Protein backbone atom coordinates (compact mmCIF):
# COMPACT_ATOMS: atom_id res chain seq x y z
CA UNK A 1 0.00 0.00 0.00
CA UNK A 2 2.97 2.34 0.38
CA UNK A 3 2.73 3.32 -3.30
CA UNK A 4 -0.54 5.09 -2.47
CA UNK A 5 1.39 7.92 -0.81
CA UNK A 6 2.21 9.39 -4.23
CA UNK A 7 -1.47 9.82 -5.11
CA UNK A 8 -2.79 10.95 -1.72
CA UNK A 9 -3.73 14.55 -1.05
CA UNK A 10 -2.04 16.40 1.80
CA UNK A 11 -5.29 16.22 3.78
CA UNK A 12 -5.43 12.44 3.34
CA UNK A 13 -1.81 12.03 4.39
CA UNK A 14 -2.15 14.19 7.49
CA UNK A 15 -5.31 12.32 8.46
CA UNK A 16 -3.34 9.08 8.60
CA UNK A 17 -1.12 10.57 11.33
CA UNK A 18 -4.03 11.07 13.74
CA UNK A 19 -5.59 8.56 16.08
CA UNK A 20 -8.53 10.14 17.88
CA UNK A 21 -9.96 9.21 21.26
CA UNK A 22 -13.53 7.95 21.08
CA UNK A 23 -15.75 7.99 24.17
CA UNK A 24 -19.18 6.75 23.08
CA UNK A 25 -20.48 3.19 23.06
CA UNK A 26 -22.50 3.88 19.91
CA UNK A 27 -21.37 5.07 16.51
CA UNK A 28 -22.08 8.79 16.72
CA UNK A 29 -21.39 12.11 15.01
CA UNK A 30 -17.91 12.44 16.52
CA UNK A 31 -16.78 9.25 14.80
CA UNK A 32 -18.34 10.35 11.53
CA UNK A 33 -16.50 13.67 11.69
CA UNK A 34 -13.08 12.15 12.51
CA UNK A 35 -13.26 9.32 9.99
CA UNK A 36 -15.25 10.85 7.12
CA UNK A 37 -14.28 14.53 7.27
CA UNK A 38 -10.76 14.41 8.72
CA UNK A 39 -9.78 11.08 7.09
CA UNK A 40 -8.39 9.75 10.38
CA UNK A 41 -5.92 6.91 10.25
CA UNK A 42 -6.96 5.51 13.61
CA UNK A 43 -9.46 5.59 16.48
CA UNK A 44 -8.71 4.88 20.13
CA UNK A 45 -11.50 3.28 22.15
CA UNK A 46 -11.47 4.92 25.56
CA UNK A 47 -13.00 3.04 28.47
CA UNK A 48 -16.26 5.00 28.07
CA UNK A 49 -16.74 3.46 24.63
CA UNK A 50 -16.50 -0.15 25.83
CA UNK A 51 -19.13 -2.45 27.31
CA UNK A 52 -19.18 -5.99 25.87
CA UNK A 53 -17.76 -7.81 22.83
CA UNK A 54 -20.91 -7.56 20.73
CA UNK A 55 -21.15 -3.80 21.29
CA UNK A 56 -17.43 -3.27 20.54
CA UNK A 57 -17.65 -5.39 17.38
CA UNK A 58 -20.62 -3.40 16.11
CA UNK A 59 -18.85 -0.11 16.85
CA UNK A 60 -15.56 -1.07 15.20
CA UNK A 61 -17.40 -2.52 12.21
CA UNK A 62 -19.21 0.78 11.62
CA UNK A 63 -15.94 2.67 11.94
CA UNK A 64 -14.17 0.50 9.40
CA UNK A 65 -17.11 0.59 7.01
CA UNK A 66 -17.10 4.39 7.10
CA UNK A 67 -13.32 4.56 6.61
CA UNK A 68 -13.49 2.32 3.53
CA UNK A 69 -16.59 3.78 1.91
CA UNK A 70 -16.58 7.46 2.89
CA UNK A 71 -13.24 8.18 4.56
CA UNK A 72 -9.68 7.60 3.43
CA UNK A 73 -10.43 4.27 1.76
CA UNK A 74 -7.77 2.74 4.05
CA UNK A 75 -8.70 0.58 7.07
CA UNK A 76 -8.28 2.15 10.49
CA UNK A 77 -5.94 1.34 13.29
CA UNK A 78 -8.47 0.67 16.05
CA UNK A 79 -6.63 0.84 19.34
CA UNK A 80 -7.41 0.19 22.99
CA UNK A 81 -5.60 -0.01 26.32
CA UNK A 82 -6.17 -3.74 26.82
CA UNK A 83 -3.29 -3.88 29.30
CA UNK A 84 -4.70 -6.86 31.20
CA UNK A 85 -6.56 -8.79 28.53
CA UNK A 86 -9.41 -7.91 26.18
CA UNK A 87 -11.83 -8.17 29.11
CA UNK A 88 -10.08 -5.74 31.45
CA UNK A 89 -12.04 -2.70 30.22
CA UNK A 90 -15.38 -4.43 29.49
CA UNK A 91 -17.87 -3.85 32.33
CA UNK A 92 -20.29 -6.16 30.57
CA UNK A 93 -17.77 -9.03 30.55
CA UNK A 94 -17.45 -11.54 27.75
CA UNK A 95 -13.65 -11.72 27.38
CA UNK A 96 -10.78 -12.77 29.63
CA UNK A 97 -9.55 -10.25 32.23
CA UNK A 98 -6.00 -11.32 33.09
CA UNK A 99 -4.02 -10.43 36.23
CA UNK A 100 -2.24 -7.12 35.67
CA UNK A 101 1.44 -6.98 34.71
CA UNK A 102 2.91 -6.87 38.22
CA UNK A 103 1.05 -10.07 39.01
CA UNK A 104 2.40 -11.63 35.80
CA UNK A 105 5.86 -10.54 36.89
CA UNK A 106 5.33 -12.12 40.30
CA UNK A 107 4.31 -15.40 38.62
CA UNK A 108 7.54 -15.11 36.54
CA UNK A 109 6.30 -17.67 34.02
CA UNK A 110 7.39 -16.62 30.53
CA UNK A 111 5.12 -19.11 28.76
CA UNK A 112 2.03 -17.99 30.66
CA UNK A 113 2.93 -14.36 29.91
CA UNK A 114 3.10 -15.26 26.21
CA UNK A 115 -0.23 -17.07 26.43
CA UNK A 116 -1.88 -14.04 28.03
CA UNK A 117 -0.69 -12.01 25.03
CA UNK A 118 -1.89 -14.61 22.55
CA UNK A 119 -5.37 -14.82 24.04
CA UNK A 120 -5.63 -11.03 24.30
CA UNK A 121 -4.79 -10.75 20.58
CA UNK A 122 -7.30 -13.39 19.50
CA UNK A 123 -10.13 -11.88 21.57
CA UNK A 124 -9.31 -8.28 20.63
CA UNK A 125 -9.25 -9.03 16.93
CA UNK A 126 -12.58 -10.84 17.21
CA UNK A 127 -14.03 -7.53 18.44
CA UNK A 128 -12.28 -5.47 15.76
CA UNK A 129 -9.46 -4.03 17.91
CA UNK A 130 -6.16 -4.43 16.04
CA UNK A 131 -3.72 -2.18 17.95
CA UNK A 132 -3.02 -2.59 21.66
CA UNK A 133 -1.34 0.23 23.60
CA UNK A 134 0.38 -2.39 25.71
CA UNK A 135 2.59 -3.64 27.28
CA UNK A 136 4.07 -1.24 29.80
CA UNK A 137 7.81 -1.89 29.89
CA UNK A 138 8.57 0.78 32.48
CA UNK A 139 10.64 -0.54 35.38
CA UNK A 140 8.70 0.37 38.50
CA UNK A 141 11.45 0.60 41.12
CA UNK A 142 10.01 3.69 42.86
CA UNK A 143 7.48 2.84 45.60
CA UNK A 144 6.12 6.39 45.43
CA UNK A 145 5.28 6.20 41.73
CA UNK A 146 1.71 7.55 41.52
CA UNK A 147 0.73 6.21 38.10
CA UNK A 148 2.61 3.09 36.92
CA UNK A 149 2.23 0.83 39.97
CA UNK A 150 0.86 -2.59 39.05
CA UNK A 151 0.96 -1.75 35.32
CA UNK A 152 4.68 -2.60 35.47
CA UNK A 153 5.97 -6.17 35.43
CA UNK A 154 8.36 -5.38 38.26
CA UNK A 155 11.37 -3.51 39.56
CA UNK A 156 14.26 -5.18 37.70
CA UNK A 157 15.16 -4.61 34.06
CA UNK A 158 15.65 -8.34 33.50
CA UNK A 159 12.18 -9.31 34.72
CA UNK A 160 10.45 -6.49 32.84
CA UNK A 161 12.31 -7.30 29.62
CA UNK A 162 11.58 -11.03 29.84
CA UNK A 163 7.88 -10.69 30.60
CA UNK A 164 7.40 -7.71 28.30
CA UNK A 165 8.91 -9.36 25.24
CA UNK A 166 6.89 -12.54 25.93
CA UNK A 167 3.66 -10.53 25.87
CA UNK A 168 4.76 -8.62 22.75
CA UNK A 169 5.39 -11.89 20.93
CA UNK A 170 2.04 -13.22 22.08
CA UNK A 171 0.24 -10.19 20.63
CA UNK A 172 2.12 -9.82 17.37
CA UNK A 173 2.48 -13.48 16.44
CA UNK A 174 -1.31 -13.66 16.57
CA UNK A 175 -2.11 -10.58 14.53
CA UNK A 176 -2.34 -7.62 16.90
CA UNK A 177 0.10 -4.70 16.99
CA UNK A 178 1.92 -4.32 20.31
CA UNK A 179 3.10 -1.02 21.81
CA UNK A 180 5.99 -0.82 24.28
CA UNK A 181 5.45 2.17 26.58
CA UNK A 182 6.23 4.77 28.03
CA UNK A 183 9.57 5.72 26.42
CA UNK A 184 12.07 6.66 27.86
CA UNK A 185 10.68 5.13 31.09
CA UNK A 186 8.03 6.24 33.59
CA UNK A 187 8.88 3.80 36.37
CA UNK A 188 11.22 5.80 38.60
CA UNK A 189 9.13 8.97 38.78
CA UNK A 190 6.95 10.45 41.51
CA UNK A 191 4.79 12.62 39.23
CA UNK A 192 1.80 11.51 37.14
CA UNK A 193 2.18 12.78 33.55
CA UNK A 194 -1.62 13.12 33.38
CA UNK A 195 -1.22 15.95 35.92
CA UNK A 196 2.24 17.47 35.37
CA UNK A 197 5.58 16.84 33.63
CA UNK A 198 7.66 14.09 35.29
CA UNK A 199 11.43 14.52 35.14
CA UNK A 200 13.98 11.71 35.10
CA UNK A 201 16.82 13.37 37.05
CA UNK A 202 19.39 10.64 36.41
CA UNK A 203 22.66 10.76 34.53
CA UNK A 204 23.04 9.55 30.96
CA UNK A 205 24.81 6.32 31.92
CA UNK A 206 22.07 5.29 34.36
CA UNK A 207 19.33 6.07 31.81
CA UNK A 208 21.02 4.07 29.06
CA UNK A 209 21.77 1.07 31.25
CA UNK A 210 18.47 0.96 33.15
CA UNK A 211 15.45 2.88 31.82
CA UNK A 212 16.27 2.36 28.12
CA UNK A 213 17.26 -1.30 28.46
CA UNK A 214 13.71 -2.69 28.29
CA UNK A 215 12.96 -0.64 25.17
CA UNK A 216 16.10 -1.99 23.53
CA UNK A 217 14.87 -5.51 24.27
CA UNK A 218 11.43 -4.71 22.87
CA UNK A 219 13.04 -3.41 19.68
CA UNK A 220 15.25 -6.50 19.50
CA UNK A 221 12.21 -8.79 19.66
CA UNK A 222 10.46 -6.87 16.86
CA UNK A 223 7.88 -4.67 18.56
CA UNK A 224 6.03 -2.69 15.89
CA UNK A 225 5.13 0.39 17.96
CA UNK A 226 6.60 2.37 20.83
CA UNK A 227 4.66 4.99 22.76
CA UNK A 228 6.67 8.05 23.76
CA UNK A 229 5.65 9.54 27.08
CA UNK A 230 5.37 13.09 28.33
CA UNK A 231 8.55 12.74 30.39
CA UNK A 232 11.61 14.99 30.45
CA UNK A 233 15.12 13.52 30.64
CA UNK A 234 17.54 16.47 30.84
CA UNK A 235 20.62 14.25 30.64
CA UNK A 236 19.45 13.21 27.17
CA UNK A 237 17.79 16.47 26.09
CA UNK A 238 18.69 19.56 28.17
CA UNK A 239 15.75 21.52 26.70
CA UNK A 240 13.45 19.90 29.30
CA UNK A 241 10.85 19.24 26.61
CA UNK A 242 8.75 16.15 27.19
CA UNK A 243 10.13 13.24 25.17
CA UNK A 244 6.92 13.23 23.11
CA UNK A 245 7.91 16.64 21.64
CA UNK A 246 11.69 16.20 21.60
CA UNK A 247 13.56 15.63 18.34
CA UNK A 248 16.75 14.55 20.17
CA UNK A 249 14.72 11.90 22.01
CA UNK A 250 12.53 10.66 19.16
CA UNK A 251 14.62 11.05 16.03
CA UNK A 252 18.07 11.19 17.58
CA UNK A 253 17.86 8.53 20.29
CA UNK A 254 14.95 6.22 19.52
CA UNK A 255 15.05 6.26 15.74
CA UNK A 256 18.73 6.71 14.83
CA UNK A 257 20.75 5.50 17.81
CA UNK A 258 18.49 2.68 19.00
CA UNK A 259 17.54 1.71 15.45
CA UNK A 260 13.76 1.54 15.89
CA UNK A 261 12.00 1.26 12.53
CA UNK A 262 8.42 0.80 13.66
CA UNK A 263 5.69 3.28 14.56
CA UNK A 264 6.31 5.98 17.16
CA UNK A 265 3.07 6.93 18.89
CA UNK A 266 2.62 9.77 21.36
CA UNK A 267 0.86 9.35 24.67
CA UNK A 268 -2.49 11.15 24.93
CA UNK A 269 -1.97 14.77 23.90
CA UNK A 270 -4.54 16.09 26.38
CA UNK A 271 -2.36 15.13 29.37
CA UNK A 272 -1.02 17.96 31.50
CA UNK A 273 2.55 16.85 30.85
CA UNK A 274 1.99 18.51 27.44
CA UNK A 275 -0.93 20.92 27.82
CA UNK A 276 0.75 22.76 30.71
CA UNK A 277 3.18 23.93 28.00
CA UNK A 278 1.21 23.99 24.74
CA UNK A 279 -2.24 23.64 23.26
CA UNK A 280 -3.04 20.20 21.84
CA UNK A 281 -2.99 21.65 18.33
CA UNK A 282 0.49 23.12 18.76
CA UNK A 283 1.75 19.98 20.49
CA UNK A 284 0.64 17.86 17.53
CA UNK A 285 2.82 19.94 15.21
CA UNK A 286 5.80 19.72 17.55
CA UNK A 287 5.45 15.96 18.02
CA UNK A 288 5.42 15.34 14.27
CA UNK A 289 8.36 17.70 13.77
CA UNK A 290 10.23 15.72 16.44
CA UNK A 291 9.67 12.50 14.48
CA UNK A 292 6.49 10.94 15.86
CA UNK A 293 4.37 8.98 13.37
CA UNK A 294 1.02 9.00 15.17
CA UNK A 295 -0.40 11.60 17.52
CA UNK A 296 -2.96 10.32 20.02
CA UNK A 297 -5.37 13.26 20.01
CA UNK A 298 -8.12 13.77 22.56
CA UNK A 299 -10.53 16.45 21.37
CA UNK A 300 -13.09 17.49 23.99
CA UNK A 301 -15.39 18.64 21.18
CA UNK A 302 -15.46 18.37 17.39
CA UNK A 303 -13.99 21.84 16.94
CA UNK A 304 -10.77 20.80 18.70
CA UNK A 305 -10.25 17.85 16.36
CA UNK A 306 -10.53 20.14 13.35
CA UNK A 307 -8.13 22.64 14.96
CA UNK A 308 -5.48 19.97 15.52
CA UNK A 309 -5.59 18.70 11.94
CA UNK A 310 -5.68 22.26 10.57
CA UNK A 311 -2.62 23.19 12.67
CA UNK A 312 -0.61 20.39 11.04
CA UNK A 313 -1.85 21.27 7.56
CA UNK A 314 -0.92 24.91 8.09
CA UNK A 315 2.53 23.92 9.41
CA UNK A 316 3.17 22.00 6.18
CA UNK A 317 1.85 24.77 3.94
CA UNK A 318 3.94 27.38 5.76
CA UNK A 319 7.09 25.29 5.53
CA UNK A 320 7.44 24.72 9.28
CA UNK A 321 6.88 21.01 8.63
CA UNK A 322 8.33 19.50 5.47
CA UNK A 323 5.90 17.37 3.50
CA UNK A 324 8.68 14.80 3.22
CA UNK A 325 8.49 14.40 7.02
CA UNK A 326 4.76 13.66 6.69
CA UNK A 327 5.34 11.24 3.80
CA UNK A 328 7.92 9.31 5.82
CA UNK A 329 5.39 8.61 8.59
CA UNK A 330 2.57 7.81 6.18
CA UNK A 331 4.72 5.20 4.43
CA UNK A 332 5.58 3.68 7.77
CA UNK A 333 1.90 3.60 8.81
CA UNK A 334 0.79 2.01 5.54
CA UNK A 335 3.56 -0.58 5.77
CA UNK A 336 2.38 -1.68 9.21
CA UNK A 337 -1.25 -1.72 8.08
CA UNK A 338 -0.30 -3.95 5.17
CA UNK A 339 1.74 -6.24 7.44
CA UNK A 340 -1.28 -6.79 9.69
CA UNK A 341 -3.79 -7.26 6.88
CA UNK A 342 -5.35 -3.81 7.18
CA UNK A 343 -5.75 -3.35 3.44
CA UNK A 344 -9.03 -2.47 1.68
CA UNK A 345 -9.16 -5.85 -0.05
CA UNK A 346 -8.56 -7.96 3.07
CA UNK A 347 -10.72 -5.75 5.28
CA UNK A 348 -13.71 -6.20 2.98
CA UNK A 349 -13.18 -9.97 2.96
CA UNK A 350 -12.81 -10.15 6.75
CA UNK A 351 -16.00 -8.19 7.50
CA UNK A 352 -18.85 -10.20 8.94
CA UNK A 353 -20.33 -11.61 12.12
CA UNK A 354 -18.17 -11.78 15.22
CA UNK A 355 -16.69 -15.21 15.95
CA UNK A 356 -18.00 -15.71 19.47
CA UNK A 357 -16.22 -19.06 19.70
CA UNK A 358 -12.95 -17.12 20.05
CA UNK A 359 -14.09 -15.31 23.20
CA UNK A 360 -13.97 -16.21 26.88
CA UNK A 361 -13.19 -19.86 26.28
CA UNK A 362 -12.63 -22.20 29.28
CA UNK A 363 -9.07 -22.91 28.11
CA UNK A 364 -8.37 -19.16 28.00
CA UNK A 365 -9.78 -18.61 31.49
CA UNK A 366 -7.63 -21.50 32.68
CA UNK A 367 -4.48 -19.58 31.64
CA UNK A 368 -5.64 -16.68 33.81
CA UNK A 369 -6.29 -19.06 36.72
CA UNK A 370 -2.86 -20.65 36.35
CA UNK A 371 -1.24 -17.23 36.50
CA UNK A 372 -3.25 -16.36 39.60
CA UNK A 373 -2.26 -19.57 41.36
CA UNK A 374 1.43 -18.72 40.92
CA UNK A 375 1.05 -15.16 42.18
CA UNK A 376 -0.24 -15.54 45.73
CA UNK A 377 2.22 -14.74 48.54
CA UNK A 378 1.85 -14.78 52.33
CA UNK A 379 3.61 -12.31 54.59
CA UNK A 380 3.81 -12.19 58.39
CA UNK A 381 4.97 -14.66 61.00
CA UNK A 382 4.31 -18.32 60.15
CA UNK A 383 2.98 -18.79 63.68
CA UNK A 384 0.21 -16.30 62.93
CA UNK A 385 -0.84 -18.27 59.88
CA UNK A 386 -0.79 -21.51 61.85
CA UNK A 387 -3.10 -19.89 64.40
CA UNK A 388 -5.41 -18.80 61.58
CA UNK A 389 -5.51 -22.37 60.27
CA UNK A 390 -6.29 -23.79 63.71
CA UNK A 391 -9.14 -21.37 64.32
CA UNK A 392 -10.62 -22.04 60.88
CA UNK A 393 -10.26 -25.79 61.34
CA UNK A 394 -12.36 -25.48 64.48
CA UNK A 395 -15.19 -24.01 62.40
CA UNK A 396 -14.87 -20.30 63.17
CA UNK A 397 -16.00 -17.97 60.38
CA UNK A 398 -14.59 -14.67 59.17
CA UNK A 399 -16.25 -11.31 59.47
CA UNK A 400 -15.35 -9.65 56.16
CA UNK A 401 -14.69 -5.95 55.56
CA UNK A 402 -13.88 -5.41 51.87
CA UNK A 403 -13.52 -2.75 49.23
CA UNK A 404 -16.63 -2.64 47.04
CA UNK A 405 -14.69 -3.72 43.93
CA UNK A 406 -14.14 -7.14 45.55
CA UNK A 407 -17.69 -8.46 45.26
CA UNK A 408 -16.54 -11.65 43.51
CA UNK A 409 -14.12 -12.41 46.36
CA UNK A 410 -16.85 -11.73 48.93
CA UNK A 411 -19.41 -13.82 47.06
CA UNK A 412 -17.07 -16.80 46.78
CA UNK A 413 -16.30 -16.74 50.51
CA UNK A 414 -19.99 -16.46 51.28
CA UNK A 415 -20.86 -19.36 48.98
CA UNK A 416 -18.25 -21.56 50.70
CA UNK A 417 -19.67 -20.76 54.14
CA UNK A 418 -16.41 -19.17 55.28
CA UNK A 419 -17.87 -15.84 56.48
CA UNK A 420 -20.36 -14.98 59.18
CA UNK A 421 -21.05 -11.43 57.99
CA UNK A 422 -19.72 -8.94 55.46
CA UNK A 423 -19.57 -5.23 54.83
CA UNK A 424 -18.38 -3.52 51.65
CA UNK A 425 -17.03 0.04 51.69
CA UNK A 426 -16.41 2.38 48.74
CA UNK A 427 -12.93 3.58 49.78
CA UNK A 428 -9.92 1.78 51.22
CA UNK A 429 -9.43 4.62 53.71
CA UNK A 430 -12.72 3.57 55.34
CA UNK A 431 -11.56 -0.01 55.97
CA UNK A 432 -9.81 0.58 59.34
CA UNK A 433 -12.81 2.38 60.85
CA UNK A 434 -15.20 -0.32 59.67
CA UNK A 435 -12.85 -3.02 60.93
CA UNK A 436 -12.60 -1.28 64.31
CA UNK A 437 -16.34 -1.57 64.74
CA UNK A 438 -16.16 -5.35 64.27
CA UNK A 439 -12.80 -6.15 65.84
CA UNK A 440 -14.25 -7.70 68.99
CA UNK A 441 -16.86 -9.81 67.24
CA UNK A 442 -14.70 -12.63 65.90
CA UNK A 443 -11.92 -13.40 63.37
CA UNK A 444 -11.68 -10.47 60.99
CA UNK A 445 -10.75 -10.46 57.31
CA UNK A 446 -9.93 -7.10 55.71
CA UNK A 447 -9.73 -7.03 51.89
CA UNK A 448 -7.98 -4.10 50.16
CA UNK A 449 -8.06 -3.30 46.43
CA UNK A 450 -5.69 -0.60 45.21
CA UNK A 451 -3.27 -0.38 42.28
CA UNK A 452 -1.11 2.43 43.65
CA UNK A 453 0.21 3.21 47.13
CA UNK A 454 -2.21 3.91 49.95
CA UNK A 455 -1.54 6.28 52.85
CA UNK A 456 0.56 4.63 55.55
CA UNK A 457 -2.11 5.48 58.11
CA UNK A 458 -4.45 2.84 56.64
CA UNK A 459 -1.97 0.08 57.40
CA UNK A 460 -0.89 1.52 60.75
CA UNK A 461 -4.48 1.41 61.94
CA UNK A 462 -4.94 -2.16 60.73
CA UNK A 463 -1.71 -3.20 62.45
CA UNK A 464 -2.88 -1.66 65.69
CA UNK A 465 -6.16 -3.56 65.43
CA UNK A 466 -4.30 -6.80 64.81
CA UNK A 467 -1.93 -6.21 67.74
CA UNK A 468 -4.72 -5.51 70.26
CA UNK A 469 -7.55 -7.77 69.09
CA UNK A 470 -8.30 -10.98 70.94
CA UNK A 471 -9.27 -12.48 67.60
CA UNK A 472 -7.26 -13.02 64.43
CA UNK A 473 -7.06 -10.14 61.98
CA UNK A 474 -5.91 -11.02 58.45
CA UNK A 475 -5.53 -8.70 55.45
CA UNK A 476 -5.94 -9.72 51.83
CA UNK A 477 -4.18 -7.20 49.63
CA UNK A 478 -5.28 -7.01 45.98
CA UNK A 479 -2.79 -4.31 45.01
CA UNK A 480 0.73 -2.96 44.93
CA UNK A 481 3.22 -5.01 46.98
CA UNK A 482 5.01 -1.78 47.92
CA UNK A 483 2.24 -1.14 50.43
CA UNK A 484 2.95 -4.27 52.40
CA UNK A 485 5.81 -4.27 54.87
CA UNK A 486 7.11 -6.95 57.19
CA UNK A 487 4.39 -6.80 59.81
CA UNK A 488 4.60 -9.75 62.23
CA UNK A 489 1.31 -8.88 63.92
CA UNK A 490 -0.72 -8.65 60.68
CA UNK A 491 -0.72 -11.65 58.32
CA UNK A 492 -1.22 -10.49 54.73
CA UNK A 493 -2.24 -12.52 51.71
CA UNK A 494 -0.65 -10.60 48.82
CA UNK A 495 -2.42 -10.90 45.43
CA UNK A 496 -0.91 -7.94 43.45
CA UNK A 497 -4.15 -7.07 41.58
CA UNK A 498 -7.91 -7.61 41.81
CA UNK A 499 -8.53 -9.41 38.50
CA UNK A 500 -11.32 -12.01 38.74
CA UNK A 501 -8.93 -14.98 38.72
CA UNK A 502 -7.00 -13.49 41.65
CA UNK A 503 -10.18 -12.97 43.65
CA UNK A 504 -11.20 -16.57 42.97
CA UNK A 505 -7.76 -17.87 44.00
CA UNK A 506 -7.70 -15.90 47.26
CA UNK A 507 -11.18 -17.11 48.18
CA UNK A 508 -10.24 -20.72 47.49
CA UNK A 509 -7.23 -20.43 49.76
CA UNK A 510 -9.16 -18.82 52.60
CA UNK A 511 -12.10 -21.18 52.70
CA UNK A 512 -12.04 -23.78 55.45
CA UNK A 513 -10.54 -26.66 53.47
CA UNK A 514 -7.72 -24.65 51.89
CA UNK A 515 -6.72 -22.85 55.05
CA UNK A 516 -6.12 -26.13 56.91
CA UNK A 517 -3.29 -27.09 54.57
UniProtKB/TrEMBL annotation:
Record GO terms (molecular function): hydrolase activity, acting on glycosyl bonds
EC number assigned by the record: 3.2.1.52
Signal peptide: none
Lineage top rank: taxon: Bacteria
Glycoside hydrolase family 3 N-terminal domain ranges (all copies): 10-335
Enzyme type, top EC level: hydrolase
Cross-referenced PROSITE patterns: GLYCOSYL_HYDROL_F3 (PS00775)
Chemical reaction(s) catalysed: Hydrolysis of terminal non-reducing N-acetyl-D-hexosamine residues in N-acetyl-beta-D-hexosaminides
Keyword Transmembrane: no
Protein name: beta-N-acetylhexosaminidase
Amino acid sequence: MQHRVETMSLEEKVGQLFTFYYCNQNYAEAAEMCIKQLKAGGMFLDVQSLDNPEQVHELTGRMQETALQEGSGIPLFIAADFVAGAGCKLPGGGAVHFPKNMAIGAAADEQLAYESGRITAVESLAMGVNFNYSPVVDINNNPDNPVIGTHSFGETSELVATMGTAVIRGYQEHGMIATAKHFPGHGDTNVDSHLALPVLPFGEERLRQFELSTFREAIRCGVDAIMVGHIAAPALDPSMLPASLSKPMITGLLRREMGFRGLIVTDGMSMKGVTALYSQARACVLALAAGADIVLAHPREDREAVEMVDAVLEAVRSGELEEARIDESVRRILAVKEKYGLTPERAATAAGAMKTTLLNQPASREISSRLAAQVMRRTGEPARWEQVKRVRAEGAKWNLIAHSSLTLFADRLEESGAIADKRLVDANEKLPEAAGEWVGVGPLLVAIAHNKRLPDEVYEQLRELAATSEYDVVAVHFGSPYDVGDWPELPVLLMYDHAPALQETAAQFLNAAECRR
